[in-house]
Request: fold
Amino acid sequence: MNSVTPKIRFTNVYKSFGTKKVLQGINLDVMPQESVVIIGGSGTGKSVLIKSVLGIVKPDSGTIEIEGRDVSKLSHHEREQQLKKFGMLFQGGALFDSMKIWQNIAFGLIQGAGMDKKEAKTIALEKLKQVGLTADVAELYPSELSGGMQKRVALARAIATKPDVIFFDEPTTGLDPIMADVINELIVKCVKDLGATALTITHDMHSVRKIADKVAMLFEGKILWQGTVAELDTCDNDYVQKFVSGMSTAVKVA
Amino acid sequence: MKFSPALDGALHAVINRFFVQAFLQSIGRNFLNFLEAIGRFAMFAILALSHCVRAPFYLKNMGRLMIDFGYYSLPVVGLTAAFTGMVLALQSYSGFSRFSAEGAIAGVVALSVTRELGPVLAGLMVAGRVGAAIAAELGTMRVTEQIDALSTLSTNPYKYLIVPRLIAATVTMPLLVVIADIIGIFGGFIIGVYHLNFNAGAYLKNTLDILTFTDVFSGLVKAAAFGFIIALLGCYNGFNSKGGAQGVGNATTYAVVSASMLILMSNFFITALFFGV
Ligand SMILES: Nc1ncnc2c1ncn2[C@@H]1O[C@H](COP(=O)(O)OP(=O)(O)O)[C@@H](O)[C@H]1O
Ligand SMILES: [Mg+2]
Reply:
């Protein structure tokens, strides 16, 4: 167990925005090919945590290691190579609104991997099908899609390049239960079939049970509890229990 | 309420001291903020320039932007130039006839348009059109996390978004100004010949006689500099916008206002460089 280097390791990560303390000493390991799910009330810094791995947010202190290497000590080029192997689904979708749907999905293939347009489009259409959308949306623009459809396109874009590590920020929020299940299956498939490592944020306990190998609860800037899904049901932490059983009184909603 | 004179004096001293100190502090703080802003802007400019000379280059983006910045600015810039040339001819006629120097009109129009009014007015119009568009587009991309998404898709936002805009604007502005020069001089010609009854051949000959290479060239150097300023401030403000729609609105305003100011200021220095004695 301890001979394996974690894919991602957070050590004492702190981050504040002005006077607002968001992350206050995060310690978490994500092992290779593991699917870790982060749960926690909204505004607790879940998105910030993921963004700090991707270099979008810079931690104030602490280290983030990827495959055993401190990301802040990498050269610009090394960091770029590393980011090539990552895929990210943004909470808000973050689709390029000046591009058609298929161009959005194919973007990483064409720009990053240098694939030719025709081949990339074929893959884009295939991914579109995997997220439950028909080929006729391919020629539309993001603004012509509903929120849930945009989310699925963003998911298709995140997995199109077959990344080694995938970050999903609330992948099923805004989807109906049936479609949410399709997406859960897809995430499981990415992890199991492609051998990817996944770090997912969700509020959906159904998703948690379906996709998580490990669950981590973020509370007041720290990982309050972590363990397997089975342990989740038997854990004796009050806050976690209330969160899991959906007793809203305990959950601070920002 | 009345205090004894001594207490009154002391009170005044305290109040003065407090306010003077607060006043000086606020000046100091603003000055430091100002320096910090300049520093951030300079860093941004240096980073952007360093990406201009390193592959990959997004030539297709650049081409599309050149058409957008140049071709679609033609109506606005052309109209501005035409009316400026026309009004110059009218003004100099009514002014110069007092010294019986009507003959100088062709030259005045040609020099004013090529050296100053062509590039400066085109620059201000393009700052309003293109600078605002750049800031709004990049600002929206920033607040909707599209810029962050770019970097997760192995694409450097500086190279993909900023470099093409800087180069497109810097290359397109001189082309626009060449056209503005021609239209402006033609505007003066129309007024000179059809309204003030100059001889067409003589007017054209006067124009060509007086114009030198430096007159036109200095104007084109200005145009390139203005194009660069417009794109740089548009990109900087858009790239660093915060918040939602309001933040994007502010970014757009700053982009246009700061580009316009910088155009007028740099215009002075470039003029001094070419013609200053
Ligand atoms: N770029 C930013 N600037 C300032 N504050 C931010 C920024 N990003 C996030 N925050 C703040 O950090 C806190 C956590 O945000 P986030 O990670 O998005 O929460 P969530 O757990 O719901 O994903 C919020 O209070 C938010 O206001
Ligand atoms: Mg979030």
Chain B has nine helices and no strands. Residues A 17, 20, 22, 42-48 surround adenosine-5'-diphosphate (ligand 1) (CB under 6 Å).
